[in-house]
Amino acid sequence: MSNLKLEDEACLVLCGEAGQGIQTVENIMIQALKKGGYHVFSTKEYMSRVRGGQNSTEIRVSSRRVKAYKEGIDILVALSPQAIDHLKERISSKTLIIGDEEILKDVDDRNYRLLKSPFISRAKQLGGIIFSNVIAAGTLACIMGVDKKIFDNIITLLFKSKGEEILKGDLKAGDVGYELGYKLMEKGITIKIEKDPKISNEILINGTEAVGLGCISGGCRFISSYPMTPSSPLQSFLASNASDFELIFEQAEDEIAAINMALGASYAGARAMTATSGSGYALMVEAVGLAGMIETPVVIYLAQRPGPAVGLPTRTAQEDLNLALYGCPGEFPRIIFAPGKFKDALELSHQAFNLADKYQIPVFILSDQYFADMYYNLPSLTIEDLEVENYLLETSQDYKRYQLTSDGISPRGVPGYGLGLVGVDSDEHDEEAHITEDLNMRTRMVDKRLKKLDDIKKEAIPGELFSTSSNGNFKNLILGWGSTYWPLKEALTLFDDHDIALLHIKQLYPLHPEVAEYIKKAERSVMFENNAQGQMANLIESETGLKIDKRVLKYNGMPFSVEEIYEVLENLEED
Predict the structure, then answer these.
(1) Residue 204 phi, psi (nearest 5)
(2) Quick check: 413 and 285 in contact, CB under 8 A?
(3) For the domain that residue 334 is a member of, what is the CATH number?
(4) Can you give the pLDDT at residue 7?
């Protein structure tokens, strides 16, 4: 029952209680495996509690690039008695479960493939159960054929700041893990995944860091935010790099203060942003309307999670498109991006700052917990072709902040740069920013602001079309946005039917004209979304008059898996 042979790829999952260091194991493993020459992908699901509950991390290890969540588990390391029950729907007859005898004592080995290994008892011998996470990491690294020196180097990098004694204990835990790993391999675990030494030099980042790099390269100089999962990691990333890039990070007392600080910084001439999640953004909407009225650029990173209200604070969703699009008083233009891969995250985040400055509007970057937290390796991310565009001018004495222009874009000055007075007012105003109740002027100002949409639409960023057909023809069009990109694409590559294509939409609003063109070309269209109402499908219908034929909606807090998408594609002809 314990024999296991894995070729080309392995899906490893670790599960235990919050507080047992599951994330620590993930950090150790993905770095060690990548350094060892494997392609890696990881994602996590965790409960919103400091102790207890069940958290798990999935790590895919492969000889090819892997970047999507799979349901199937090859090896499960159970660090708590409840781990198996928590993941029972993902465990198959092929899954090998490794755990301490104390953890597995009540598990029926007639129903599961079990391998018992003394993680906990050996951890206690080292000084505490806390060492069980590093022992588990060492065991997996050994099974996967990672050189012990690589593993020790990773342990040293992660734990040396905690002091010599703690580092010494963790290195010993790694020794124990390798010792146990060799013993398990003697029981029939065979791993045949091809390594590539070049992979060890590739970068390994997560979605949050990809967005953060785009913000920095886009010239962000000020971020003010209030912590809220899953936007907090971006705040931490930018704060930790602030001193190197002349960037100011301010943790505000609440979301209202945060966005108003960002608007103040932008009014003064700094490229500014804020980061939040759904119910935090709900507090910001009045100030987003203020940005629309005073035509002050701001970038808003909206990391989605299930709602309404607090919902599932640590799970994933695509439920806030409507909130970003409609959740403000009045009518004014905005742009909404949703990256699906790290290259898009870098480039779209960079471009968000240019477009916010050019059109003097709010620009949204929609992310979610799954995208923000997932890791994978890639050769590089380049910013060589990305420029920071400057749209500020030195004002003259007769400067009018809201000058009526043919394209709706008033020349933008900032206080202290030139001789002009840079007025601003949240009430309706005339060209010089004086409050007005002139109804004709009101109409002209609304028209001026909305006129920008004409040029914004011309600059809309196209999506990415992927087809398995050599000539690009297709009968069925699969559509997705944001973090659905990689699961959809991987599922499509597994499918033999060449009549299917994937359109991943990067700019959700305003839509690029190609979206309508591709839908018209297809005999059938299918939209995948992590929400209950098909918000993107509704937007497409509203903007183009075209109805999406089939909606595949998932809103339980988990991302789409490759397997469930494949099943939908396989049954398309039967629908």
Answers:
(1) -130, 110
(2) no
(3) 3.40.50.970
(4) 78
